[in-house]
From TrEMBL, chains A, B, C, D:
The keyword Transferase applies. The gene is aroF. One of its GO terms (molecular function) is aldehyde-lyase activity. Coiled coil: none annotated. Its EC number is 2.5.1.54. Residues 86-321 form the DAHP synthetase I/KDSA domain. Keywords: Transferase. This is 3-deoxy-7-phosphoheptulonate synthase. Residues 1-67 form the DAHP synthase ferredoxin-like domain. NCBIfam families: DAHP_synth_Bsub (TIGR01361), PRK08673.1 (NF006421), PRK12595.1 (NF009239). It comes from Enorma shizhengliae. InterPro entries: Aldolase_TIM, Class-I_DAHP_synthase, DAHP1/KDSA, DAHP_snth_FXD, DAHP_syn_2. GO terms for biological process: aromatic amino acid family biosynthetic process.
Length: 340, 340, 340, 340
């Protein structure tokens, strides 16, 4: 961290600042910049609040040099992380996977949908048993019964299951059921007790970006999980909130290459939530693939108009077949050879 | 809810839609609009996903008629709610209160700061014992020990205490300590398990708007708490996330009169988080008062440069004295008589 | 347009509203909805301000039925518009074109860069002669001399040139020079005198979305041009402004399929401005192609570190070769046959 | 400007960068920071594109030290600027003024409204003759005839008139009519040819913040005007675009104290456009006053339901009387003495 001091900063104020920094356990390297003094802070800069430093009278600007995320940072882990989701399904480092299934687990249609998405090439099955809904009066999910239906589908089809966890008190149930991938939704992207709790497991975590979460905050949320010991984190771009209302969210696909640049963790994209309308899911699934995502999460329902949630954005199995065929071609377009 | 159908909607498709609506347990009133058909949905429209309805082929637009929040809605409760926070401190319905104190409970300075803010006219004491921090490496709060320090200050000064709760597993501790007001922070504005859990108590809840939360979502979060039986909800505007970076957040003071228009619940504003810099807290505290807020939450620290969190936005006790004096005048300016 | 009245709307107030509507030259069709009255407004609803209508005491909500854009609306022009940019280069309706070249026209390097991008497959040449810069102290462009250099490059290479116009007083110069495509930049997306002025020509217009422009506002800007008689409008998504700072803008690729759904006009995407960093341009160029864009606009410079503007986001000619090769494969992936 | 280099930056690359900087006419001061090299750039840093610098391989981060605005910067002009708008009406430096009148000049009602707002205490008259409308089919203003009506009202009432200019070709007309204050609207906040053109006059300019304009961009727009020689710039916060839809814009009142901190120019706030609804104008007018604005711009109409534009946000003259009375009290609350 570097503090650039105001011109004409008083000498005694400077030495006061230096001793303040040293009391926090860091070293303060003062160097004459151009026509201003620069103080370099060496040591554990997480102990310094940059806003506070910048608010001090003699300080003009503060600039972080190092990112606040460490374990998620590609600088310290240049090699892509590959997360093993079970059943031989690996994601990241060149391994591309499609997670598909209904928004909510609703009953026996789960297995029907699961068979279709598997046949089309999906390698992981999604379905929500605990549903975060804006309204307390909306359907809240089947709960444990939904988890059981997912486990039955897994047993028949031999594919990992992905399902959302909202409450730190539910982690034990998810462990008991051996849920393959626990999903943290956008609304819990900064639910720190939950992040810490899933961080104590070794279960892969599909971590969604918050609706107003910056890319850095997503990586800090990953850091919460990793700092507790769980390195199996899969990042997910699912759209952010902006002023545009023609789609449910604004799909920030820039985040895919940016996350790959900043971090070694796999990056998945969710075109279903990012658009909110069935008719836009296919083009945006293809776009996400072309942007270099390591996987997609797509909602598929065999009777969208009767889905218990988010039917507006579900693909039918036939549409999903179409998407999967095109994805193969796009994956070829982004191999190193294709540019040669 | 009203569905406006596309021109030339096929008759059999219309009757299919009508029966779909009826299967959901609602009535469908078809009326010829201008040159399009309109279907009015009567009954429990929470069972209908408006996005799904709008995604149907024959539907052009869907318009909610009634707001999805009921218990928080002024239409059904025209009179202002007054929340009793204990020690005779009431907020709402003309009762204006200032909550002040340090960002974090840090130790024995709490009581020193508390005495000063009380002397200046604050009627409630704030201080964080559990701190939601973007970084897992940042200070996470004193926990139970912090609650105890707050309780000691309360005992000496006879004023209610306000402190943040982040984890549904902590509700019992907060009840045991008889915390007067439980604060739900911006990051937990859609942490539904937490909202439900505090909804099962009768403790007043200071509910902060999420960083990307719409006004409607804030009211839906209140609805989560109220639908569990706790009507003692105080809403709080604390700034939203936008593209502007000169301040920590963008203070949406429009939300104060909008929330008063839509809801009967008291509305508090937090100029400390909404600006992020000490130098902007005073003008924005006055602005929030002039906008008609029922109270303010302000961070005060007697040694901001050594605060354990958010020192950049803390007022000193002397600055706080100044703010409190000006607030009195502004409160007069917005009485009914002042306009006459 | 439909106005949904409040429950218990007073009968005399309703008839007052009806006569107000009729005075504006529209018909008001009153129909009993479910338990509220609905007024359908028939006629030229552009004469009604929906905000004003909604602000009236007895009105609960107002819902537009028809979009305010007419000439740009696919409903009234179901077939894709194909814009002829000269030299046989057509865009839209299945015709895909890549516009490439330096951000600014700087001198003789223009022709060198132009040869390279043409060789790689670009079909149109871009270069700015008039530069909109945030700072008055930054380089403002070569002006007429820059237009002349573009014309020389056109003469040699036989490809249309695309260049930005910022001032309605410059239209005549652009016409005199027979500029093939006039570009309207993001900052002028609602510069209505400029839109009207270029609307009086028949020159194709590359119309960029404003930084905070909604999709509907982009279409209304197109409508301004078209309402003056120029139907040759090419829409361009170039990133919007959000809270994310890791990229220069947030690339809203959702806009590509949304614009295709709402409008018949061709849609181009600009991954250079939408990301702001060279390293992200390639993946996002591919993503835009996969999303179904009718073309791309990409900045290419043979010595980015000496570019006079926007060197940070320029591709080198070698990088551009690589992108062009991959684009071909992606174009195949989105043909109708590829899904079969 | 300071460039912080990556750890292990290659020595030859560093000297290459140094010579690149020097070729731009600046000096490069290299200093060993903590464990990274820092290059301080001395000289005219407007010649350096910070994005480009940051995109270079060996550069980790770039930090501006000085703001890009000079003439608008309080650092170089510590004293508040007072703009003289004619008729003895001065704004800034403790002088508070209220600009009021109809959104559009519509005809003879202008003088009726003008008399009322003057009687209530407004000191400047507003009214739009050239209207920037999202739709080309909406009312576009009376043009010159509207200017004449404003001039007549001015002649009768002896108060300066404020009216919007949208087209650089209209400057001469505005000068001929001796318009007292030319307003630049939000949509033209980065219309640089227009800014330059009004910068060549000495007429006071009321410069509105763009819908997605940062505070720094607003100051850079002021800089455009001032760099041409016109120092009579009044800044105006009128709401920015965010995700919130319950109001027309989000009123960023934080901008008032931030602009006062960064700049010496007067700051006006426009609660009419910032809220969009009559019922919210009064509380937000009071809030803006309490935040320290040097003036307000408020739309007043004596028959809002028949206003030709923006009737939804107009105050009636009676409402305006009420606001003006309360403003007086709030102005007292923010005098230095009130805090003592």
């Amino acid at each position: 961290m570097i503090a650039i001091l105001k011109k004409n900063a008083d000498e005694s104020a400077v030495s006061h600042l230096v001793s303040w920094i040293e009391k926090k356990g860091l070293e303060a390297h003062v160097s004459q910049g151009t026509d201003e003094l620069i103080i370099g802070l060496v040591g554990d800069t997480t102990k310094i609040d940059p806003f506070l430093l910048e608010s001090m009278d003699i300080v003009e600007r503060v600039q972080r040099v190092s990112e606040p995320f460490k374990k998620a940072n590609r600088k310290f882990h240049p090699t892509d992380t590959v997360v093993d989701c079970g059943f031989g399904v690996k994601i990241g480092g060149g391994n591309f996977q499609v997670i598909a299934g209904p928004c909510s687990v609703e009953g026996e249609n789960l297995i029907r949908i699961a068979r279709r998405v598997k046949a089309a090439g999906a390698t992981m099955l999604r379905g929500g048993a605990y549903k975060p809904r804006t309204s307390p009066y909306a359907y809240q999910g089947m709960g444990v019964e939904g988890l059981d239906l997912l486990c039955e589908a897994r047993a028949e089809l031999g594919m990992p299951i992905v399902t959302e966890i909202m409450d730190p008190r539910d982690v034990q149930i998810f462990l008991d059921k051996k849920i393959d991938v626990m999903q943290i939704g956008a609304r819990n992207a900064q639910n720190f007790p939950l992040l810490k709790e899933v961080g104590k497991t070794q279960t892969p975590i599909l971590l969604k970006r918050g609706m107003s979460g910056t890319i850095d905050e997503l990586l800090m949320a990953a850091e919460y999980i990793m700092s507790e010991g769980n390195d199996n984190v899969i990042l997910c771009e699912r759209g952010i909130r902006t002023f545009e209302t023609r789609t449910r969210n604004t799909f920030d696909l820039n985040a895919v290459p940016v996350l790959h640049y900043l971090s070694h963790l796999p990056v998945v994209a969710d075109p279903s939530h990012a658009t909110g309308y069935t008719r836009y899911v296919e083009p945006m699934a293809l776009a996400a693939t072309a942007a270099g995502a390591d996987g997609l999460e797509i909602e598929v329902h065999d009777d969208p108009s009767h889905a218990w949630s988010d039917g507006a954005q579900a693909l039918t199995p036939d549409m999903f077949d179409d998407v999967m065929r095109r994805i193969q071609i796009i994956r070829e377009a982004i191999t190193p050879e294709a540019g040669a």
